[in-house]
Design goal:
About 4% of the residues have low confidence. By secondary structure, the protein is α+β, with helices and mostly antiparallel strands. The longest helix is centred in the middle third of the chain and has 17 residues. It starts with a strand and ends with a strand. It is built from 18 helices and 39 strands. An 8-stranded antiparallel β-sheet has the order 14-13-10-11-12-15-22-20, sandwiched between helices. It has an 8-stranded antiparallel beta barrel with strand order 24-25-26-27-28-29-30-31. Strands 3-2-1-4-5 form a 5-stranded parallel β-sheet. Strand 26 and strand 27 form a beta hairpin. InterPro entries: ATP-grasp, BC-like_N, Biotin_BS, Biotin_carboxylase_complex, Biotin_carboxylation_dom, Biotin_COase_C, Biotin_lipoyl, CPAse_ATP-bd.
């Protein structure tokens, strides 16, 4: 079981995290990468790197033959699967071992047993772990499933036996909808996992998601490393995780931890794994959901409160080492929160965001696990999560405050992120009072979530920051620093400069000398700033005699400036044009066609629902696009007739690529 070189069969932040663990033990690393990831940080940081295929995951990160060939070619002695992709594929684990390599994870039979939710629940029952009432039988006929559904009663869930992440899951609240829900769950399970088997389970209202981390070696030693709460979710996808799980009765917490160890022992588990539960606060009861036979995305919060490096121990266990501690040696200190940083727009149904990161300025003094940097390209081929903020504090209240502060100090340009939404979740009274639950987002934001609008002062200071950035410095020639100062007033009056914020027809005007300036917003609101200055990404000055200091980051794009400024609602981004920018755009003939449906981001055309000549109503779906593993329905902006189509199902399209042209419907 000895090895000195580890192939990491994954990408992004988890690949870099595993590389850190390997370096800690003096192990060399091999990165495998797709063509889309050729310039990614995890490739540059590895000791060896091998391209294993094109961007599509099915031809690269899921290509078992290519991964094993890369291991053979580079002399790797072990394979770490990370999470996602092939990490819970028992056939992959078996293929790694058959090739004479060490699989850094549990045995293939344990992965297979826990990979089937039906088999996993049977194992849990046998180990004395509570499970939700339901039907998990082998008879998958419609008649049997409907009969069992009637006996179970609503509400209940139809769930795919294979896979996870909410795929192949349907909630039934009216028995009349049961046949359709079963058929739909089966079809999605077949497409996603190649297995149409489903089971039925009672639905627990207002439940929380609590999980227990376990760690076992190959010598029969097995411990738990405490619990986590992952109840802030959307569509069964976790958003924020914390450890330990808050507001759990002490006796119940100990029962959950002991049950997790009991189940892991029953299946002879080795390496790191997670037993997941549904916790019903009303009944003070917990129920087994599933076991994840891999490293979890949220493993850093457990590392924070225990001081135990899970990746290091995965590697040491794979080398045959014994655990050097027993259960009484595991201690828990403080509270930890992990915030998932994703390239998506929560205000627009979590629409994926793509592009090139022009600014990457994370907060200092906190742990950040990330797979990107300034200049990284965020494409549509893979998951939208780019990084994880991990905060460790003495207690939960302080951890929340520190998490909010970390988000407020995080500036990113070029790609939209979910940071403002995550900040709103952390600051929500339901989260503070531990009233949140797995289906609680609609309650937390009954009218949907919208990002906060920047206040007048922040809008003015964004224009001021750009103005100071463009002002000629002492000793520079006019040709080096003209910028927005080309506009001047009549002789004897101070010069003025104009800056147009995105979406504004009228500019903000800045007038005065370089130390005392007045910014007049488009609505006429004046903001007078004394002793203004911009040094080392820090904007300072006085307003009404009161000093201020705000973080400010500026980056130039092709056709405008990006200004990122700390505001009372967190870090805000402003797209600002100078007069030169507006002249150049007019000269280039850039126009937008309201009659043209374009791709909001790069992606693959999954379905084309119209043909030339079709009459459509406003809101009708014209094209279904897949980006970052999510489906986006692109709808008609108005009623009309399909004039031209520029794409076909299966096409890969760029962002802003034209898809469908509509002729407006004439009104009489």
């Amino acid at each position: 079981m000895s090895f000195t070189r580890v192939l990491i069969a994954n990408r992004g932040e988890i690949a870099l995290r595993i590389q850190r663990g390997c370096r800690k033990l003096g192990l060399e690393t091999v990165a495998v990468f797709s063509e889309a990831d050729r310039d990614a940080p995890f490739v540059a940081e590895a000791d060896h790197a091998v391209c294993i295929g094109p961007a599509a995951a099915s031809e690269s990160y899921l290509n078992v033959a290519a991964i094993l060939e890369a291991a053979r070619a580079t002399g790797a002695g072990a394979v770490h699967p990370g999470y996602g992709f092939l990490s819970e594929n028992p056939d992959f684990a078996a293929a790694v071992e058959a090739a004479g390599l060490v699989f850094i994870g549990p045995a293939p039979d344990a992965i297979a047993q826990m990979g089937s939710k039906i088999a996993a629940k049977a194992a849990a029952e046998a180990a004395g772990v509570p499970v939700l009432p339901g039907y998990r039988g082998a008879d998958q006929s419609d008649s049997r499933l409907l009969q069992e559904a009637g006996a179970l009663g609503v509400p209940f869930l139809v769930k795919a036996s294979a896979g996870g992440g909410g795929r192949g899951m349907r909630l039934v609240t009216d028995m009349a909808d049961a046949p359709k829900a079963i058929a739909s769950a089966r079809a999605e399970a077949q497409g996603a996992f190649g297995d149409p088997a489903v089971f039925l389970e009672r639905y627990a209202l207002r439940s929380r998601h609590v999980e227990v981390q376990v760690l076992g070696d190959t010598h029969g030693n097995l411990v738990h490393l405490g619990d986590r709460d992952c109840s802030l979710q959307r569509n069964h996808q976790k958003l924020i995780e914390e450890a330990p799980a808050p507001n759990l009765p002490d006796d119940l917490r100990e029962h959950m931890r002991a049950a997790a160890v009991r189940l892991a022992q029953a299946i002879g588990y080795r390496s790191a794994g997670t037993v997941e539960y549904l916790y019903d606060p009303e009944r003070r009861a917990y129920y087994f959901l599933e076991m994840n036979t891999r490293l979890q995305v949220e493993h850093p919060v457990t590392e924070a409160i225990t001081g135990i490096d899970l990746v290091e121990w995965q590697l040491r266990i794979a080398r045959g080492e014994r655990l050097t501690f027993q259960q009484p040696d595991v201690h828990f200190e403080g509270h930890a929160i992990e915030v998932r940083v994703a390239a998506e727009n929560p205000a627009e149904n979590y629409r994926p965001e793509t592009g090139t990161i022009t600014l990457w300025a994370p907060p200092s003094g906190v742990r950040l696990d990330t797979g990107v940097r300034e200049g990284s390209v965020v494409g549509h081929h893979y998951d939208s999560m780019l990084a994880k903020l991990i905060i460790h504090a003495p207690d939960r209240a302080q951890a929340i405050r520190d998490s909010v502060a970390a988000i407020e100090g995080f500036a990113v340009g070029g790609v939209g992120l979910n940071l403002a939404f995550q900040r709103a979740l952390l600051m929500h009274p339901d989260f503070a009072a531990i009233r949140h639950h797995t289906a609680g987002l609609p309650e937390m934001f009954a009218n949907g979530w919208t990002p906060p609008e920047s206040d007048a002062q922040s809008r003015a200071l964004a224009a001021l920051a750009l103005h100071l950035h463009l002002v000629p410095t002492a000793g520079s020639t006019p040709w080096q620093g003209l910028g927005a100062w080309r506009l001047t007033a009549r002789a004897g009056l101070p010069g003025a400069a104009s800056y147009w914020a995105s979406g504004e027809e009228d500019p903000a005007c800045v007038a005065g000398d370089t130390r005392n300036l007045t910014i007049t917003l488009p609505d006429g609101t004046p903001v007078a700033v004394e002793a203004s200055g911009l040094t080392a990404d820090r904007l300072t000055g006085r307003i009404g005699g009161v000093p201020f200091a705000r973080a400010a980051h500026l980056r130039r794009t092709k056709d405008h400036w990006q200004v990122f400024l700390s505001t009372p609602d967190g870090m805000a981004g402003f797209a600002i044009e100078t007069l030169e920018d507006r002249h150049l755009q007019r000269a280039s003939g850039k126009v937008g066609g309201a009659d043209l449906l374009v791709a909001p981001m790069p992606g693959a055309v999954v379905e084309l629902r119209v043909a030339p000549g079709d009459r459509v109503a406003a809101g009708d779906t014209l094209v279904v696009l897949e980006a970052m593993k999510l489906l986006q329905s692109l709808v008609a902006p108005f009623a009309g007739i399909v004039a031209e189509i520029y794409c076909a199902a299966g096409d890969t399209v760029a962002g802003q690529a034209p898809l469908v042209k509509l002729d407006p419907e004439e009104t009489q």
